[in-house]
UniProtKB/TrEMBL annotation:
GO terms classed as biological process: amino acid transport; transmembrane transport
GO (cellular component) term, any one: membrane
Name used for this protein in its record: AAT family amino acid transporter
Residue span, Amino acid permease/ SLC12A domain: 27-468
Residue intervals passing through the bilayer: 28-46, 58-80, 92-110, 130-151, 163-191, 211-232, 253-272, 304-324, 344-366, 378-396, 417-441, 447-467
Keywords: Membrane, Transmembrane, Transmembrane helix, Transport
Keyword Iron listed: no
Principal localisation: membrane
InterPro entries: AA-permease/SLC12A_dom, Amino_acid_permease_CS
Membrane topology, record value: Multi-pass membrane protein
Cellular compartment(s): Membrane
């Protein structure tokens, strides 16, 4: 597979070298799965079941998958038509307005920079369960150094490392679903059951034990679990033959995620009473994955899951640093940040952008001194909310792009990849994302993060109109 550059490798304006096209479909699918399978699945899924009940959780994840699929169809159409690094920012700039493009690029940078803090903190807290005498911040520094090294090496090595890190998670989830189903159907013995529990637990306390509202209240957690799929759009600018690879990767990633998430929820709900699914105060040991593996009789279940979750967190941080640094590169490339941010080294890596983005891990370093739980929840809320706003921009960009396309006398058949059911898909995607974003304001613990995000958005628009409007 080539990683050499061709003259038209990337759309760029003068002050930087193009990024290299070094990724294949295999890398794209694993990068998006790697971005999505993280704490949202291993820890968040139990929270959703505890709050909504089993049937509610299954509905919530199916809804989340449908929303993600609608957004990714819109993204696929744009990414195939215009494969650039810094994708949604570029699309929002062209099809919504330059101020929005600038703001969306910064928001996506904030999404992953906030997430970096949560991934490093969570991984460090897990290591402390093994090594209680070593401080959290030492682990945070070690993990930050590893992820920094992988991102600074080369696009190809980054993609390859992400492939293998993601594979650990994917194999764990598949094993969990298969072993869980064997226990459900009585092939494997399961703690406390003389005969197979089958699916009676799922409706043991009625279909919706807490009513319908919690399904909507947990949609932010669920949508955050699917976030990462849009990394396909960011990576489109560094992908070989995007017209063929991007649509293939989007379809493969979404269907696999739906099977993984819904399969996981069904297994947990069938095997555990729903009030046991949520996280207690015992960290990973109260993850529903650990409980199920323990009950099936797998030795060292807690250690295995702890190792997998640490891998999952590092893989998400790996993807996140990649995505956020590409956003900075794109801003600098459009002369909306100093030229130094779009400097690339001889391997085609935007190294200054990577170094600056790494400072996003600082909240993770501070959290040991100042309430890790509170910082963790708020960082997660910020990351989830900014992600939802970015998804809304993708739907609106595709809606405007397609209307322009038709006005110019083209047809959908002329597009390399056309999202089906226009305009229903972008409109529904936008509306669902909007409702999900507003749900954050309903959670008193996340209200501070919600207000912070709105202030950040206002500051982005303000800085754009004060400093950059003239040059456009």
């Amino acid at each position: 597979m080539q990683s050499s550059q061709s003259p038209n490798d990337a759309m760029h304006q003068g002050n930087s070298a193009p990024l290299k096209r070094a990724m294949s479909t295999r890398h794209l699918v694993m990068i998006s799965l790697g971005g999505a399978i993280g704490t949202g699945l291993f820890l968040g899924s139990g929270e959703v079941i505890a709050q909504t009940g089993p049937v509610g959780a299954i509905i919530a994840y199916i809804l989340g998958g449908i929303i993600a699929y609608m957004v990714m169809l819109c993204l696929g159409e744009l990414a195939v038509h215009m494969p650039v690094s810094g994708s949604f920012g570029a699309y929002a700039q062209k099809y919504i307005g330059p101020g929005t493009g600038y703001t969306i690029t910064w928001l996506y940078w904030l999404t992953w920079t906030a997430t970096l803090g949560t991934e490093f903190t969570a991984a460090a807290l897990l290591m402390q369960e093994w090594f209680p005498h070593i401080s959290v911040w030492i682990w945070t520094l070690i993990f930050a150094a590893i992820i920094f090294g992988l991102n600074m090496s080369s696009t190809r090595l980054f993609a390859e490392s992400e492939f293998w890190l993601s594979l650990v998670k994917v194999v764990t989830v598949i094993s969990f679903i298969i072993l869980g189903l064997l226990a459900i159907f009585g092939v494997l013995s399961f703690h406390g059951y003389s005969s197979a529990p089958l699916f009676s637990n799922i409706t043991a306390e009625g279909w919706f034990p807490q009513g319908f509202f919690p399904i909507f209240a947990t949609m932010l957690i669920v949508n955050f679990a699917f976030s990462g799929t849009e990394l396909i759009g960011v990576a489109a600018g560094e992908t070989q033959d995007p017209a063929k690879n991007v649509p293939k990767a989007i379809n493969a990633a979404i269907w696999r995620l739906l099977i993984f998430f819904v399969g996981t929820i069904v297994v947990i709900s069938a095997l555990l009473p729903h009030e046991m699914a949520g996280l207690g105060g015992n960290g990973v040991s109260s993850s529903p994955f650990v409980t199920v593996f323990n009950y099936i009789g797998i030795p060292h279940a807690e250690d295995i899951i702890r190792f997998v979750i640490i891998t999952a967190l590092l893989s998400a941080a790996n993807s996140g640093l990649y995505a956020a640094s590409r956003m900075m590169w794109a801003l600098s490339d459009k002369k909306q940040l100093p030229a130094v941010f779009s400097k690339v080294n001889h391997k085609g890596i935007p190294f200054v952008a990577i170094i600056v983005t790494m400072f996003g891990a600082i909240p993770g370093l501070l959290s040991e001194q100042f309430a890790p739980e509170t910082i963790f929840k708020n960082l997660l809320g910020v990351a989830a909310f900014t992600m939802v706003v970015v998804w809304m921009s993708i739907c609106l960009s595709q809606f405007n792009f397609r209307r322009q396309w038709y006005k110019q006398g083209h047809t959908a058949k002329e597009l390399g990849f056309a999202a089906p059911l226009f305009p229903i898909v972008p409109i529904l995607g936008f509306v669902f994302c909007f409702i999900t974003g507003i749900s954050m304001a309903a959670d008193p613990e996340m209200l501070a993060g919600f207000i912070g995000c709105l202030i950040f958005i206002a500051l982005c628009y303000l800085s754009y109109y004060v400093f950059y409007r003239k040059q456009n």
